[in-house]
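Predicting holo structure, pyridoxal-5'-phosphate bound.
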Amino acid sequence: MALRGSGSGRGERQSSAPGRTVDHLPPSIMDGMTETPRATMPERVVRADRRASILGAIGQTPLLRIRLFERDAPGVTVFGKAEFLNAGGSVKDRAALRMIEDGEASGALTHDRIILDSTSGNTGIAYALVGAALGYRVRLVMPTNVSDERKTTIAAYGAEIVYSDAQEGSDGAIRVARALYEEAPDTYFMPDQYNNDGNWKAHYDGTGAEIWEQTNGQVTHFVAGLGTSGTFVGVTRRLRDERADVVCVSVQPEDPWHGLEGMKHMPTAIVPGIYDAALADDNLWAPTEASYELAAELAEHEGVMVGHSSGAALWGVREVARRIGHGVVVTVLADGGGRYLSGGLYGRRWQ
Ligand SMILES: Cc1ncc(COP(=O)(O)O)c(C=O)c1O
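Done. Tokens:
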């Protein structure tokens, strides 16, 4: 059973940016055909375009029932939020769209500026997609060892890539992006996902609200991996506002040299400004191998092909399920496994 929100459709997604509610008429296919140059479009037409565009396929993702742990913990019902079904294929679409819309609303982002940020991949794809859809140039800093699938996808959306040292990981990319920005601040709009409240607010208004609605308020536990921490912080704040006793558990890689792309080992990383460690009731340390294994099991036994970090989140869910015996546990399946094929996540299954 997959639960979908009963309320709004995908077109009416999470953002609460001003002006989100637009015309009295539904968007029609004609919106895309009346090609007005973007710079001269009246505000009303730009907004109407968005609802009918690919951006309307960000948010309102299905909540999938996961049965992998039923034998271990028969009293626990597990759901995974299928974030790989967002338009750009990951949970980061929500944050990127929100930060860009907030930038537009505040006047910090105009069409003469380039969107610049550091990203280990998914946020880059999200910026590139949203930028292409809205007519912005996008420049992204990422370590050279990011998977080929990610680099090629970003290039396909027309964004530029600046490479940073692989040895320095995502922190090295952050430093290079900051240096580029400081050299020419008037050239860029830098959302800075690690310190931008729009990141976690996308999950407060979107992901968290959807989880509450899709479980009919029955969620008892929330488990999510930490990258920028936007997902965990936003969903946790929302669920706690709905019901104070929802237990929220973060998951981090067990060691600094993990292979869980998109996740951060906070004790050895530059800690994101939006991260609030006090929000978590508990934090679990996921081993890389076991996380890979769980991701593979989910594909093989349930037909849901996810990436490494979802495997780590599932590892955390299994720990929680074993401990609690009863409850409704929700986690986030941050992206799909197709993004990691060259990295061997699923390769050994046929070799
Ligand atoms: C694959 C993957 N999983 C999990 C995360 C963590 O999400 P957040 O940045 O909201 O903590 C990210 C973030 O980039 C990611 O790319």
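The pocket of pyridoxal-5'-phosphate is lined by residues 90-92, 122-123, 225-232, 261-263, 307, 309, 334-335 (CB under 6 Å).
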